[in-house]
Design brief:
Length: 153
C-alpha cells in the first residue's frame, strides 16, 4: 500500500502529516483568524522546495486557503494542473452562496498582495471541510464549497 503524505506550505516552510489526526491538528492550527496563506498538497511523497538538498517537487494538485482576520470567513482555491477535465486543468476559487455583509480582504499571495474576489468569502467551517476532503481523497476537488473560475495561479 502506498503511503499518502499531506504536505503543507506555510510561507517558505513545509510541514507534513501522514495520519488523519495529524491532518486535523494542521487544520486546527492553520485555519485560524489571520492565519497565513497555506498551500496544501497530497501525494505519495513529501513536497520539497529544494532548499533542503532534495529535488524540488510539488504535486500537480494544490489547495490554497486564506482565513480572514475575523476568523469567520475564509477562501479556498483549487488547482489541478493535469486533469482529464478540458482544457487539461482546473483552476477554481470558492464562491459564496450569499455575499458577506461587509467585504473581507482575503489574501491570495502576500508577496504580490493579490487577494481573492469578495464573492470568494465563505464560512471558515466550509473551508476546513474542503481541506479535510482534499486530504482524505488524495487531492480531488472538494465538494464542500461552491466553485467559480479561478482568478490567480
Amino acid at each position: 500500500m502506498t503511503e499518502t503524505v499531506v504536505s503543507v506550505l506555510v510561507g517558505n516552510r513545509l510541514r507534513y502529516a501522514r495520519q488523519p489526526s495529524e491532518v486535523e491538528a494542521l487544520i486546527a492550527e492553520l485555519l485560524t483568524p489571520g492565519a497565513a496563506v497555506v498551500q496544501w498538497f497530497v501525494s505519495d511523497r513529501e513536497a520539497s522546495t529544494g532548499a533542503d538538498g532534495r529535488e524540488r517537487y510539488y504535486p500537480d494538485t494544490r489547495l490554497l486557503t486564506s482565513v480572514g482576520e475575523d476568523g469567520v470567513v475564509a477562501a479556498v482555491s483549487y488547482l489541478a494542473r493535469k486533469s482529464a477535465v478540458p482544457p487539461k486543468g482546473v483552476l477554481v476559487d470558492s464562491l459564496a452562496a450569499q455575499p458577506t455583509p461587509e467585504p473581507v480582504e482575503l489574501m491570495f499571495d502576500r508577496e504580490s498582495r493579490s487577494t481573492f474576489r469578495a464573492d470568494s468569502a465563505v464560512p471558515i467551517a466550509a473551508v476546513a471541510e474542503a481541506a479535510r476532503e482534499f486530504c482524505r481523497t488524495g487531492g480531488q476537488q472538494p465538494t464542500a464549497v461552491l466553485w467559480q473560475p479561478g482568478q490567480h495561479i
